[in-house]
């Protein structure tokens, strides 16, 4: 029997309801733990957000082409999408300005992905200053003050005549033999001068230092003046952490973007960010293939970058080995300077918009140059390391822009449409929903319960999916998306109508009602699947080719199409099978929507013995009723009576043929 395919139709319904309950439970948990909200996030047109206007610049003053701007817009869009922000609007304004509008309250990391829109470079480290000269001077002065205070508090021996006094002491009338001399404070300029005066001639020269190698790590790229400036630079001050465009062919001074005070002197760029093929964040795996909790970024270069990184890794490994050799006790007293310089030069820095986002050397396990273009950058363990690795992967993947940008303005913008338009859209959807219910009740009577229940389940499921996507991937609902949700009402109703009309066709062909429901499903599901597949393909194509609000419409249309397939398979069809167990539907009550007159049933066996009389009356022909009326007339000719009887006989035969019953 065809009905054996669904022995327990309620199982699918219960399973679907269980999935919805679990989904709403997860959403409630996320809301209780402040990780998300019960309602989906809203897009710019309904909530407002942050608008940033970027002005393009170049380091060499060359002309900016439209192709450069279009490519930059695409990269910025990839950056924003990778950060999990949906429904962002990125467009050109005026000549070459780029306007980036982000909905809601974006995180600082997301804003940095937009603000820091310069080309990303890999640069060699030449010098590192952990703290500024001002900080060193402050520490030295504090230490001297403490020592002086201790010396003053400790009694000292009386000076003998053979001890020579300084000019200052001799000139001070109040000086006593036991007085402690005053220590002159150290100035930041003195600290910076001592660090920068490489040749110890007492002056800070702007001439290049003697070459130490024939590569971008050579001291010949820098000057004593550059060392002095780097030592004096305060990399904790906010004004020094805004970033700027830098010439990739020259040595530069760069602050650590984390604001920890570290300043770098970096050589010319070895590799550009455009030579990165892929950067993926993830945990490190052991030799046996098991995962660890050590987060990092796996970087793959293209052919050009692979060749360049092979040379860079060879050079850095040489500096690392030289630093280890210089640090050995047998190296002699002159090893300290070499050790300091070599250990610093064994690192490379990743620079974005003039700020160093990280610096790194090679682990001891790396003993030979990396020639396959694949390198892993270790970050650390824990949740913070995971966030940092994800951010670094996004910066490496989408940090390569053909031009640099400066932030012209950054401001909060209000919603262009607001909650009133959202409310009007929801009211329009509710009105359409009620009109559909009225139509279904008029057309399909009691059977409209199945359609309405399917619509309710589809609406609940769609809301759950949208809310979870808003939590998991940052999706935001726009007014265009609301339009896609309203259209989904028609998609669900259309699926029901296709199914019911196939059931009606099967009943007309003489099948029993139960068999018609099952056989009609076999034919209807192919049509439904094909129809929804066409909608889904159209949604995917529209989403891929469109931008902005049109993408929101395509996204919600695709989501509701998938939800419709789930509802029609897991709810509508099982519910149709289940309601036939009730006499109201199974025996075709005239208000059920499955009554024989409504379906045009031709078989008495379709409804069972309880409905024989109703079917008898339903299929009674018009010709037979006319014959009985003529037979009841009081006067009629015999020939006329014979004709009436003849008509009655003919009509009775027609009825017998229609029913398939003999009188």
Automatic annotation (TrEMBL):
<dbReference type="InterPro" id="IPR022813">
    <property type="entry name" value="SecD/SecF_arch_bac"/>
</dbReference>
<comment type="similarity">
    <text>Belongs to the SecD/SecF family. SecD subfamily.</text>
</comment>
<dbReference type="InterPro" id="IPR048634">
    <property type="entry name" value="SecD_SecF_C"/>
</dbReference>
<dbReference type="GO" id="GO:0005886">
    <property type="term" value="C:plasma membrane"/>
</dbReference>
<dbReference type="Pfam" id="PF22599">
    <property type="entry name" value="SecDF_P1_head"/>
</dbReference>
<feature type="region of interest" description="Disordered">
    <location>
        <begin position="147"/>
        <end position="218"/>
    </location>
</feature>
<comment type="function">
    <text>Part of the Sec protein translocase complex. Interacts with the SecYEG preprotein conducting channel. SecDF uses the proton motive force (PMF) to complete protein translocation after the ATP-dependent function of SecA.</text>
</comment>
<dbReference type="GO" id="GO:0043952">
    <property type="term" value="P:protein transport by the Sec complex"/>
</dbReference>
<keyword id="KW-0653">Protein transport</keyword>
<dbReference type="GO" id="GO:0015450">
    <property type="term" value="F:protein-transporting ATPase activity"/>
</dbReference>
<dbReference type="GO" id="GO:0006605">
    <property type="term" value="P:protein targeting"/>
</dbReference>
<feature type="domain" description="Protein export membrane protein SecD/SecF C-terminal">
    <location>
        <begin position="404"/>
        <end position="576"/>
    </location>
</feature>
<dbReference type="InterPro" id="IPR054384">
    <property type="entry name" value="SecDF_P1_head"/>
</dbReference>
<feature type="compositionally biased region" description="Basic and acidic residues">
    <location>
        <begin position="653"/>
        <end position="663"/>
    </location>
</feature>
<keyword id="KW-0811">Translocation</keyword>
<feature type="compositionally biased region" description="Low complexity">
    <location>
        <begin position="147"/>
        <end position="188"/>
    </location>
</feature>
<feature type="domain" description="Protein translocase subunit SecDF P1">
    <location>
        <begin position="69"/>
        <end position="125"/>
    </location>
</feature>
<feature type="transmembrane region" description="Helical">
    <location>
        <begin position="553"/>
        <end position="580"/>
    </location>
</feature>
<dbReference type="Pfam" id="PF21760">
    <property type="entry name" value="SecD_1st"/>
</dbReference>
<feature type="transmembrane region" description="Helical">
    <location>
        <begin position="422"/>
        <end position="442"/>
    </location>
</feature>
<feature type="transmembrane region" description="Helical">
    <location>
        <begin position="528"/>
        <end position="547"/>
    </location>
</feature>
<feature type="domain" description="SecDF P1 head subdomain">
    <location>
        <begin position="260"/>
        <end position="403"/>
    </location>
</feature>
<dbReference type="InterPro" id="IPR048631">
    <property type="entry name" value="SecD_1st"/>
</dbReference>
<keyword id="KW-1003">Cell membrane</keyword>
<dbReference type="Pfam" id="PF02355">
    <property type="entry name" value="SecD_SecF_C"/>
</dbReference>
<dbReference type="InterPro" id="IPR005791">
    <property type="entry name" value="SecD"/>
</dbReference>
<protein>
    <recommendedName>
        <fullName>Protein translocase subunit SecD</fullName>
    </recommendedName>
</protein>
<keyword id="KW-0472">Membrane</keyword>
<dbReference type="InterPro" id="IPR055344">
    <property type="entry name" value="SecD_SecF_C_bact"/>
</dbReference>
<feature type="region of interest" description="Disordered">
    <location>
        <begin position="627"/>
        <end position="663"/>
    </location>
</feature>
<keyword id="KW-1133">Transmembrane helix</keyword>
<keyword id="KW-0813">Transport</keyword>
<dbReference type="GO" id="GO:0065002">
    <property type="term" value="P:intracellular protein transmembrane transport"/>
</dbReference>
<feature type="transmembrane region" description="Helical">
    <location>
        <begin position="449"/>
        <end position="473"/>
    </location>
</feature>
<feature type="transmembrane region" description="Helical">
    <location>
        <begin position="479"/>
        <end position="500"/>
    </location>
</feature>
<comment type="subunit">
    <text>Forms a complex with SecF. Part of the essential Sec protein translocation apparatus which comprises SecA, SecYEG and auxiliary proteins SecDF. Other proteins may also be involved.</text>
</comment>
<keyword id="KW-0812">Transmembrane</keyword>
């Amino acid at each position: 029997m065809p009905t054996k395919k669904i022995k327990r139709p309620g199982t699918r319904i219960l399973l679907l309801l269980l999935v919805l309950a679990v989904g709403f439970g997860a959403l409630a948990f996320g809301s209780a733990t402040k990780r998300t909200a019960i309602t989906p996030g809203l897009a710019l047109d309904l909530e407002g957000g942050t608008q940033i206007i970027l002005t393009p610049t170049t380091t060499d003053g060359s002309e900016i082409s439209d192709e450069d701007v279009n490519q930059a817009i695409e990269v910025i869009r990839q950056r924003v999408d990778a950060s999990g922000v949906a429904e962002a609007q990125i467009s050109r304004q005026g000549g070459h300005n780029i306007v980036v509008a982000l909905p809601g309250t974006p995180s600082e990391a997301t804003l940095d992905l937009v603000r820091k829109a310069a080309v990303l470079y890999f640069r060699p480290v030449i010098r590192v200053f952990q703290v500024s000269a001002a900080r060193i001077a402050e520490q030295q002065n504090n230490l001297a003050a403490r020592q002086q205070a201790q010396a003053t508090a400790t009694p000292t021996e009386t000076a003998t005549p053979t001890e020579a006094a300084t000019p200052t002491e001799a000139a001070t009338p109040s000086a006593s033999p036991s007085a402690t001399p005053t220590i002159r404070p150290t100035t930041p300029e003195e600290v910076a001068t001592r660090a920068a005066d490489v040749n110890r001639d007492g002056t800070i020269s702007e001439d290049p230092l003697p070459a130490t190698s024939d590569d971008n790590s050579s001291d010949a790229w820098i000057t004593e003046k550059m060392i002095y400036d780097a030592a004096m630079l305060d990399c904790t001050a906010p004004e020094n952490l805004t970033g700027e465009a830098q010439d990739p062919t020259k040595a530069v001074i760069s602050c650590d973007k984390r604001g920890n005070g570290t300043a770098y002197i970096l050589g010319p760029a070895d590799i550009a960010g455009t030579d990165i093929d892929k950067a993926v964040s993830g945990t490190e795996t052991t030799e046996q293939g098991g995962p660890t909790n050590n987060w990092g970024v796996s970087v793959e270069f293209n052919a050009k970058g692979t060749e360049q990184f092979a040379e860079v890794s060879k050079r850095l490994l040489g500096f690392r080995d030289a630093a280890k050799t210089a640090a050995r006790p047998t190296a002699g007293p002159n090893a300290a300077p070499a050790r300091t310089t070599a250990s610093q030069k064994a690192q490379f820095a990743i620079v974005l918009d003039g700020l160093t986002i990280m610096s790194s050397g090679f682990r001891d396990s790396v003993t030979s140059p990396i020639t396959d273009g694949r390198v892993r950058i270790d970050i650390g363990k824990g949740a913070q390391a995971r966030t940092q690795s994800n951010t670094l992967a996004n910066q490496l993947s989408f940090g390569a822009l053909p031009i640099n940008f400066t932030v012209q303005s950054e401001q909060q913008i209000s919603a262009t449409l607001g909650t009133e338009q959202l409310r009007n859209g929801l009211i329009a959807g509710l009105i359409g929903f009620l009109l559909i219910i009225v139509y279904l009740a008029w057309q399909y009577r009691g059977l409209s319960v199945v359609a309405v229940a399917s619509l309710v389940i589809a609406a609940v499921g769609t809301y759950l999916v949208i809310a979870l996507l808003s939590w998991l991937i940052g999706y935001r609902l726009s007014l265009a998306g609301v339009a896609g949700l309203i259209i989904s009402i028609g998609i669900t109703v259309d699926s029901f109508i296709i199914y019911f009309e196939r059931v009606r066709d099967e009943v007309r062909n003489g099948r029993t009602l139960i068999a018609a429901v099952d056989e009609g499903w076999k034919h209807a599901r192919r049509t439904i699947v094909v129809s929804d597949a066409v909608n889904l393909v159209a949604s995917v194509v529209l989403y891929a080719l469109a931008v902005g609000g049109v993408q929101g419409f395509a996204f919600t249309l695709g989501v509701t199409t998938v939800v419709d397939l789930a509802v029609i398979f897991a709810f509508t069809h099982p519910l149709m099978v289940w309601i036939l167990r009730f006499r109201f539907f199974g025996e075709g009550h005239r208000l059920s929507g499955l009554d024989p007159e409504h379906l045009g049933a031709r078989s008495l066996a379709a409804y069972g013995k309880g409905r024989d009389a109703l079917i008898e009356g339903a299929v009674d022909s018009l010709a037979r009723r006319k014959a009985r009326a003529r037979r009841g007339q009081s006067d009629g000719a015999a020939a006329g009576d014979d004709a009436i009887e003849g008509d009655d006989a003919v009509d009775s035969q027609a009825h017998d043929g229609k029913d398939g019953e003999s009188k």
